[in-house]
Amino acid sequence: xxxxxxSRKASLYSTRxxxxxxxxxxHTVRVVDYLRCCMSIASHSPSVMYSxxxxxxxxxxxxxxxxxxTDYGTAVVRxxxxxxxxxxxxxIAISKSRDKLRCLQILAHKGIGLPVTSFAHSxxxxxxxxxxxxxxxxxxxxxxxTQGIGVMLAESHQSAKSAIEAFKGAKVPIxxxxxxxxxxGMDIRCLVVGNKVVAAMKxxxxxxxxxxxxxxxxxxxxxxxxxxxxxxxxxxxKAMGLSVAGVDLLRSHHGACVMEVNSSPGxxxxxxxxxxxxxxxxxxxxxxxxxxx
Length: 293
Prior knowledge:
This is Probable alpha-L-glutamate ligase. ATP binds at residues 141, 178-179, 187, 211-213. Belongs to the RimK family. In the C-terminal section; belongs to the RimK family. By secondary structure, this protein is an alpha+beta fold. The protein folds into 3 domains: 2-94, Rossmann fold, CATH 3.40.50.20; 117-179, ATP-grasp fold, A domain (Dna Ligase, domain 1, 2-Layer Sandwich), CATH 3.30.1490; 182-292, ATP-grasp fold, B domain (D-amino Acid Aminotransferase, Chain A, domain 1, 2-Layer Sandwich). It is built from 9 helices and 16 strands. It has a 5-stranded antiparallel β-sheet with strand order 14-13-12-15-16, sandwiched between helices. A 4-stranded parallel β-sheet has the order 2-1-6-7, sandwiched between helices.
């Protein structure tokens, strides 16, 4: 089987592990920088050019599309879809999960637990935004932030109002969410492959830091999920149409709350914390998917 991994760098941990896992199972794996892909859009013979040469035919593609290049990256994924190549995560699913507002609206429609979230356009509605999530403390999020960047905690009504006014003045779209105090700076990353949670870890925020992202100093450790948490993670990935996803949960007084669904979850932290060969699980899923086609 020939597998392409759409990634900016072959040296990235997640990309490297996927290459290793694929080759260990006897497959030919090639890393393709999706920003170097040129697309020939034709009715009967769509193709992808790479470094001036047409790419060979692949059996499967694993997209590892960075948040800052979602539009072009998903266009490349769509091109492979046009070529009838098996794509692990579809272009539509990646786009839906990257749009935080759209993602939350889809999850809410499916009845999946979420923090109370508000969104509005007019600066005149700031007080209503704050009121809808139960007041301060609350969390303010940029719609396009990743790795904990663009997420801030406002501990008072006035600080929340000032921050929201600043973002509105700069025409930066944001979400306002309730702050889950009982989570105590800890969240859970569930790695979903197919219809299974193959690994899960907790991430504890650094002292004085409410964000638990590993890039912000969060400490990972393996964790045992409750049946509700496992079901919530699987349902969230399915709602977004993702076959491989990182689903981030918080433990709240009203059950598991989904914070985010990531279409290109990092593998280093969760493999190190749990000892699970997540990359191998992804390759195994591709093998089974091709057999079923």
